Amino acid sequence: MTPEPVLSIANLSVDYVAAAGTFHALIEVSLDIPPGRVVGIVGETGCGKSTLGHAIPRILPIPPARIVSGKVVFRGIDITALPAWKLPTVRGTGIGMIFQEPLNSLNPAFRIYDQVAEAIRIRRLREKGQGLRKAEGAPYDYSTTGKSIPASPLSRPFLPGGTAAERLQTRSVEDPSLRKAVLEALSLVRINDPETILRLYPHELSGGMRQRVMIAQALSERPSLLIADEPTSALDVTIQAQVLTLMKELIDEIQTSILFISHDLGVIAEIADDIGVMYAGRLVEFGPVGEVFEQPRHPYTRSLLRAAPDRSKQEGPLESIPGSVPSLAKLPSGCAFHPRCALATKECAVSPGPVLRPVTGAGGASGAHRSACWHAEEVVS
Amino acid sequence: MGRSATDLLWFIGKRLLLLIPLIIGVNALAFILIRIAYPNPSSLCIIWLGGHARGSAILACENAFGLNQPIVTQYFLYLEQFLRGDWGTSPNGIPVLTSIAQYFPATLELVIAAVVFIVVVGIPLGVIAAQSNGRWMDHLVRILYLGGWATPTYVGAIIAAFIVAPYLGLPNTGQYSHPPPFAQPTHFSVIDALLAGNLPYTADALTHLFLPAVTLGLLNLGIITRMTRASMLEVLPLDYVKSARMKGLSEFFVMYKHALRTALVTTITVLGLLIAGLLSGAVVVEYIFGWQGAGEFAYDSISTANIPGTVGCVMVFAIGAVVANLIADILYGFLDPKVEWR
């Protein structure tokens, strides 16, 4: 028996409407994230994986983006049907997010303490509002959240922010329990001596440090689902490894489902339980990481795996996928991958996009492995 | 070089020191330009003494004020006086400094009220316009601020004073309905009434202040709204706005705490320049609303060939402009933690 998924996406389609035409960024994507599981999404640039990450908590810019159809059900409530003013109640404590650019994802005008403390204050406020539900194991019952979060207690003095206003600022560092919670959040992400960075501004920290603060901030709200949108891509390789190790350790420590978006197969392999492969706005293959890597059931996944440098082997040139990613405005007929596919038949070019279906035979033993290829059974790794 | 309180004090000190050459320069320029506008000394004396003045009186006047000496000599005589702290005397016998102390606070009061209006209304309008970028609300806001910006001050002020004021039943002349029975130590109409503990007069002063301040504000908030809109549009797509949203903050806090905080940096700079312009630009509004401020004094000084009075007004406006920009620079540093005082 499978537990109720934390997040269930059904037939989600998102378009970008621009002067140059309509871009189908997401086409009929369906995906379940069970509690406590790490789902990795992999694909090339422009395949829609970031759009997916942004569409779930509805932070896509609308317009140009437009949710055409589909449902995003998070803990029993359909986010796509929520009125905009209720959305904040789902974000933060419900769905947290880590962004790609640690340079830009922290507000440059606020101290580290203030930014993390703000997140913790939001969580505490909601815990206060619905304290009873917490004892039942579900931190927040989003299905009954009828009103927006009272925002006024979060307001802080607006102007002072410089070092010249330090006296004013120290007032805010006086709440000892909040201070303790901030320090805890920062030590959770392995920041040694968090005291020293409390009073610093984001531009005074390194990229890796900023990403740690970002992770601390997101986790301090104890979200049920964490969306990590390429959290390591913008970092140096060494820092990347550190942050990745940190995330792996954190996954064991906290009970959070994670949607981990990356273009790096190696990263996904290390961190994810399940993997979804996206191509041209569609989820083309989905399954447990081991199975997908051992027995890819979509020609695109196979090509992607072959194109990834294998650290253990050092033989021969890397393979590349012939052709290039199609424009989302002018998708090929039938299966979007067929012009680049070795297995493509006439059927692939003509018939409408196949639906993600469970694969049979070897590699499909668990039933969780699904592919959107007419020839899934013919794909050999 | 840094961001400590001492750095800030040094920064302010340095900027205030720069005021000294500026004052001397503006002083020289203003005096000489106004003085050469009346090339004939006797014509000046006729203006001062009145049309019926006789030849001997005019001659005595020319000698008394040294009007027949070279202009440069006249300037240095004036400068010597000026540096001793005596800004000269108007033809009506009132020292210029006394007039300025009386009239300038009224202008400052009007400008401060207008700036409060601009900040409270203009900046949120810019945020709203950015939020609804390209939709009807954006266009509505644009019509409003472009309309205000494009309206000549005298047209806008006349409409406000003679059409809007009677319609709303608001006063349109002066600072009080009746001459106040209390002393006016600060010459800020609202503050004086408050100091005297006279609440009816305070309310009266506020209703008198309301319309000219709103008029001045509406006519000038365009640039602030536009700057706010433009810098908000730059900030809104950034990741930290998304991450503020993903914290679970309401849209109000995302906009006004997180996005506006950084977007304000450019707005503040423009606001400093705008205040400098408003100080002298309030003249027309003051004149139409019978607001007894520096604008009225400046207008009277110019039209009565009151040279020390005119120079005094120019000085005050120049100093006001520098101080407004200094304040804007200080606020800028508070808003942007990357700025170092230097």
Textual characterization of the structure:
The complex is a heterodimer of chains A (about 375) and B (about 350). Chain A is of the alpha/beta class and about 375 residues long. Chain A is built from 13 helices and twelve strands. Chain A has helices spanning about 50-55, 85-90, 100-105, 110-130, 130-135, 165-170, 175-190, 205-220, 235-255, 265-270, 290-295, 300-305, 345-350; strands spanning about 5-20, 20-35, 40, 65-75, 75-80, 95-100, 225-230, 255-260, 275-280, 280-290, 355-360, 370. In chain A, the strands form two sheets. Chain A has an eight-stranded mixed β-sheet with strand order 6-7-8-3-9-10-12-11, sandwiched between helices. In chain A, strands 2-1-4-5 form a four-stranded antiparallel β-sheet, covered by helices on one side. In chain A, strand 7, helix 9 and strand 8 form a beta-alpha-beta unit. Chain A is globular, with a radius of gyration of 22 Å. Chain B has about 350 residues and is mainly alpha-helical. Chain B contains 16 helices and no strands. The longest helix of chain B is centred in the first third of the chain and has 36 residues, at about 95-130. The model of chain B has no long low-confidence stretch (mean pLDDT about 85). The interface of A and B includes residues 57, 108, 122 and 218 of A.
Short descriptors:
heterodimer; A: 381 residues; alpha/beta; 8-stranded mixed sheet; 12 strands; 30% helix; globular; B: 342 residues; mainly alpha; MetI-like fold; 2 domains
What would a concise description of this structure say?
In chain A, 30% of the residues lie in helices and 19% in strands. Chain A is an alpha/beta fold and 381 residues long.
Task: Summarize the helices and strands and which ones pair or pack.
The complex is a heterodimer of chains A (381) and B (342).
Chain A: E1 7-18, E2 21-33, E3 38-42, H1 49-55, E4 65-74, E5 77-78, H2 87-90, E6 95-98, H3 102-105, H4 112-129, H5 131-135, H6 166-172, H7 176-188, H8 207-219, E7 225-229, H9 237-253, E8 257-262, H10 265-271, E9 274-279, E10 282-288, H11 289-294, H12 299-307, H13 346-350, E11 357-358, E12 370-371
Parallel strand pairs in A: 3-8, 3-9, 6-7, 7-8
Antiparallel strand pairs in A: 1-2, 1-4, 4-5, 9-10, 10-12, 11-12
Helix pairs in contact in A: 4-7, 4-8, 7-8, 8-9
Chain B: H1 5-17, H2 19-36, H3 41-49, H4 55-64, H5 71-83, H6 96-131, H7 136-150, H8 153-168, H9 189-195, H10 199-220, H11 222-235, H12 239-246, H13 251-281, H14 283-288, H15 294-303, H16 307-335
